[in-house]
Design goal:
Two copies of one chain form a homodimer.
Chain A (H helix, E strand, L loop, with lengths): L8 H11 L9 H8 L3 H13 L3 E3 L6 E3 L2 H6 L8 H16 L2 E8 L2 E8 L14 E3 L4 H8 L3 H14 L4 H14 L2 E4 L6 E9 L5 E10 L5 H20 L3
Antiparallel strand pairs in A: 1-2, 3-4, 3-8, 4-5, 6-7, 7-8
Helix pairs in contact in A: 1-3, 2-3, 5-9, 6-8
Chain A binds a DNA duplex through helix 3.
Chain lengths: ~250, ~250
DNA sequence: AAATGAGTTTCATGGAGTGAAACAGCCATT
DNA sequence: AATGGCTGTTTCACTCCATGAAACTCATTT
């Protein structure tokens, strides 16, 4: 896989250094050098550049490096949740490339769910479903997820509409939602559409609130229950990562 | 002033590009190029590098550039207010170099104020006051600031303790706090310590809450009222900048 | 059609970033 | 004290890589 590279090496290295701090608060020079696999002196120079611009600072006591205050100034203008479709797209593409099936993003709107973003599987047979499409909230993996993490009032409201449409038992329904919360994901097989299966996981925002549901879907003969379960860890991880990108 | 430069030019330029977004949400390539005064192609390459690492993204609709989601991931590990002393130190040093007097940082703790950081004037005569020192909250420029922006309950509580210690009139006291809020800073001349004068301004966090007070202090024969007033704009600006660095 | 202005790519050039090695501090050991 | 091991920092020759002018697209405007 030859990547189209018209980028600046030292900048990429500097960004890699910043990214060392995603899960660690402070690091020493050599720790960073080991992480990014670069020579001490190179890292030192890059750090000095970042520090000069306020993106890195040194703790006076420990002499270790930390993220600098300039990132605060920037964080005010970060993408908002309403840009979700844009922000999460690269991650969705990544998941699609991992799994090879269509990946969709849904949010709840009233008693419906609406697909706000989708990246299609590049396989021959694929499910087609346009962005913007609206679907009922009581059927399909994504619906289960969106409902499971919603307020009770909303669950009740959907139960009312669904009650008339399909013969769903109230207790079974609530049991299913509880199960979804416990598992952390939901599946559906030929539920909404014949021949189609899907796995879905919640995207919880940084604040812990449900922001959207992420779904992987495909033809049920290709996306077998075993395959679906095998994909769950990757889907959960992707959803977790996406959550960290949202307010 | 010859700066010690062992830094990487392209990285600094890339950071300058990121900093274009402190007060703007999205920018086009040429807008950025104009801001940082670099040729289009150079900016294009740097942007591609930043985009590749997720620090910049392009809005699908407008085709303009925005800050990327990677900054979210980093913002989780940003310095907290309890690191204030560390975070604000460089700015304090800068102010000290501008004004040439001792710069201190105070926070309120109960009915006292405590110096949590200080950079000493490098002049011959200088005030000595160790970090960690605690002082009463009813006297001195910093106390006025810390109180002026505090809850009324705290003001009352201090009034009670102060009432016994020094003969302060309640109305005069409250009037003084109101005046401090109106001006946005406070001064004190030989109030707490004979021969010492100080100017202080509040550091308001990003959320608008009082985080600390910034004080410039020195011998009152050198730090005359005129000098103090002349320094006010720089102090206010420094305090404002520091505020943007705090939650 | 021609012209403007956006973004992108190409390419020769030399200046800039690189990493090995040496240097300088700072604690533990010996 | 002297040693060794560990940091972070600086130096420096080499060459490679970032640079910016210019050429090239592709829309949109005149």
């Amino acid at each position: 896989m030859e990547e189209g590279k018209l980028t600046v090496r030292s900048v990429e290295r500097a960004m890699d250094i910043l990214l060392c701090f995603v899960d660690v608060k402070e690091l020493s020079l050599t720790e960073i050098a080991n992480k990014v696999v670069l020579h001490k002196s190179t890292v030192h120079r890059l750090l000095a550049s970042l520090e000069g611009k306020g993106f890195i600072l040194r703790d006076g006591a420990t002499e270790k490096y930390r993220l600098g205050f300039r990132l605060w100034e920037l964080s005010a203008n970060l993408v908002q949740s309403d840009d979700m479709g844009v922000v999460l797209l690269p991650e969705m593409e990544r998941l699609r490339d991992q799994i090879g099936e269509t990946v969709s993003l849904y949010v709840r709107d009233g008693n419906e769910r609406v697909r706000i973003q989708a990246v299609q599987s590049n396989q021959a047979i694929r499910r087609v479903a346009p962005v913007g499409a609206r679907m009922p909230l009581y059927v399909g993996a994504s619906s289960k997820v969106l409902l499971a993490y919603a307020d009770e009032a909303i669950q009740e409201s959907v139960l009312l509409t669904a009650d008339g449409a399909v013969g769903v038992d109230r207790d079974v329904f609530l049991q299913m939602l509880s199960e979804t919360r416990k598992l952390g994901f939901a599946t559906s097989i030929e539920e909404r559409e014949p021949g189609a299966a899907a796995v879905s996981a919640p995207i919880l925002s940084r604040a812990g609130k449900l922001a959207a549901s992420l779904a992987v879907s495909g033809p049920s003969n290709r996306l077998t229950p075993e395959k679906m379960l095998a994909h769950v860890p990757q889907i959960l991880e992707a959803a977790r990562r996406m959550g960290t990108m949202l307010r």
